[in-house]
Design goal:
Elements lengths: L4 H10 L6 H32 L18 E7 L6 H9 L7 E7 L5 H8 L5 E6 L8 H12 L4 E6 L2 E3 L3 H11 L4 E5 L1 E3 L3 H18 L19 E4 H8 L10 H11 L4 E5 L4 E4 L4 H8 L3 H4 L4 H16 L1 H7 L3 H19 L12 H22 L1 E4 L2 E4 H4 L3
Parallel strand pairs: 1-2, 1-4, 2-3, 6-9, 7-10
Antiparallel strand pairs: 4-8, 5-10, 6-8, 11-12
Length: 403
Amino acid sequence: MKVCPINALARGLFVQYDHHATFASSSWPMFYYLFACLLLWIGMTIYLVANSRRISHLRDCDAAMARTPAVDIVVAMRNEENDVEQALSSLTRMRYPGYRIVVVNDRSTDRTPQILERLAQTLPIIVHTVQELPPGWLGKNHALYQGFLASQAEWLLFTDADIVFHPETLSKAMAVVQRQQLDHLTALPHVRSRSALLNRVLSTFAVMLELKVRPWAVRNPKSKAAFGVGAFNLVRRSVYAQAAAVPALRMRPDDDLKLGEFIKAAGFRQDVVNGEGMVQLEWYRNLREFIDGLMKNTFAVSNYNPVLATAGAMAALLIFCLPVPLGLLWPDDACRVLGAAILLCQVLIVALRPGDGKWNGGLMWFAGGLMAWIIVKSMVITLWQGGIWWRGSFYGLKELKGR
């Protein structure tokens, strides 16, 4: 009689001692769940570690180029009095000839307008002020579009007000787009936080994001993988003009991702680089800000579909969160071994990727549960209030869906 290899392994792990045999029969469902999770985690670890190394590091790219096309850097800001000076100072130190900085002040109510007025006297920036938000636009999306209208260059770099750039960032990026004949280049920023706990959560967020969007496959024209990051979207002017004409993109909280998807779907050439050491930001200062910040756009990633959002939350819970605590706390040695092995995979999937803290994966089970909760809470709040609040403005769900 043939014996199933998995059953044979399971029996070997469970029935180590005679006095465990009685309990083992009630642990089979848990064992199979943990065993399946371990196989999945081994596969994901190998897959992600191998593919993440295919993403080029911008800092290692040669800055030499045949010509230097004109570039306008477009920065939209609203109530950024704490970050505006540092961000604009780094932009003005770029080692690239003839670029311009277009700053869009989007209805700021703090000291941002006064700071911009003072900086404009000493820095080479052009300030465009938005007084009112027209219907059919999210505030930031409209501000970026106004920056596009105020620009003139062949290439546009869209970025955020809290980004700090290395002086060689633009020259290296422009060299990449010319060598690869790209229409759009986005960079994965080095995201830092003063909170050690948030840094660990951000590592899990990065793992989830890369598994979903597969940034290493973006350069392949046959792949459906597409990507865009608000911190660094370098795009050809003619290409952005086509995207800006699409009404559906105007109401997307995840406009950076959707811009990348439109560019790829339209047949333009796109790639992703690792911006560690070249593009840096403190996304959120602490865990509370991170949770509050994701409330407005997490449900949008599921296209406001409750079924997709619930499926995403369940995947985060069943794959990232529950296996480790259930395995380690389950009163059986075999399950504890599986739980420890899954924890090891979670540590390795972060430690072996470029840029992350080596031990940040140790709390992936916590971060997975947190992400599941954020997905569910974002969905419930958006459905309950019929839309989202973003920077003092309310946007209805029908409007967000483009209906």
